[in-house]
Amino acid sequence: MWRFKLIIGLFLVILPVAQAQVVTRVLTSKKVVALTFDGCENRHASYLDCGIIDYLVQNKIPATFFLTGKFAYRNMTDLRKIKNYPFFEFENHSLNHIQHMEKLSTYKFYKDIAKNQKMIRWITGKTPKYFRFPGGNYDDNTLKAVESMGLQVVHWTYASGDPDKNISSEMLAKEVDSLTTPGDILIFHVNGRGAHTAEALPKLVEVLRKQGYTFVTVDQLMKMEDKTAAILPKQNAPKN
Ligand SMILES: [Zn+2]
Fold first, then answer.
1. SS3 content of the chain, % helix, strand, coil (to 5)
2. 84 CA distance to ligand 1 middle (Å)
3. 236 CA to middle of ligand 1, Å?
4. Ligand 1 centroid vs 112 CA: distance in angstroms?
5. Centre of ligand 1 from the C-alpha of residue 238, in Å
6. Rounded distance from Cα 198 to ligand 1 centre (Å)
7. DSSP β-ladder status, 32-39 and 214-216
8. How far is the CA of 47 from the centre of ligand 1 (A)?
9. For the residues 216-232, what does the mean pLDDT come to?
10. What is the CATH number of domain 20-222?
């Protein structure tokens, strides 16, 4: 009997525990990249950047939007116009965009995310599967809590820095051209904070297509994971 208990004990010790993890890129040998856009607001009202949306729609480019409830509610009419495009995905970026959700009480934390699930579903008709923390801030507990709600945390491979007014559209395109590797998740802003994002978008799409990249949503990218794919080294950042 003791042997049996010992074996069970050992089994429990070495049993792999599902790891809480933040997805920042997906290992794949396919030349795919996911464009993601944050729609959020802090103190001031923010509006959907029509320049970005028009370009994505006209060119049928897959994109994933991480929306806060506040932003989604304010832009409800415009979001409902684009919600049925099959190449768009709408995901959860919290209700109120609190910069440090790890400081919230457990009750407030769950309520904020659950309310936004409902909000996004109500506006777009789709249930989010992915979550992005405001400001990318989290700790072990908040990460596990989000996963316990059935959401997977998806951040980004490298920050484009698109809120920076000093980064021109040419610089953005150059940066994307040299830094992107297969399976990367790129982040931009669709709330008017992307100073030159709309202007840069056609340029960066062109440079990536020239390299042979195609665009996918985050959900599509997640399904392309290939753990045997080799990690390609990144080139050096462009000198501006
Ligand atoms: Zn945000």
1. 40, 15, 45
2. 23
3. 27
4. 14
5. 26
6. 17
7. parallel
8. 13
9. 88
10. 3.20.20.370
| DSSP codes joined into one string, 195-223 | TTHHHHHHHHHHHHHHTT-EEE-HHHHHT
pTM: 0.89
Cα(159) to centroid(ligand 1), Å: 12
Distance (Å) from CA 46 to ligand 1 centroid: 11
pLDDT tens readout for residues 112-133: 999 999 999 999 999 999 999 9
User: What is the token pair recorded at 50?
Assistant: 């029509």
Q: Work out the mean pLDDT of the chain and round it to a whole number.
A: 91
pLDDT in tens, 135-191: 999 999 999 999 999 999 999 999 999 999 999 999 999 999 999 999 999 999 999
Phi/psi at 88 (nearest 5 deg)? -110, 145
Q: Give distance in angstroms: CA of 27 to centre of ligand 1.
A: 25
Please list all protein residues whose beta carbon sits less than 5 angstroms from ligand 1, which is an ion: 38, 40
User: Do residues 40 and 93 make contact, with C-beta atoms less than 8 angstroms apart?
Assistant: yes
CA distance 14 to 70: 44
Per domain, the residue ranges of the chain are 20-222
Task: Give me the DSSP letters along 139-159.
Answer: -HHHHHHHHHTT-EEE--SEE
CB 102 within 8 A of CB 143: no
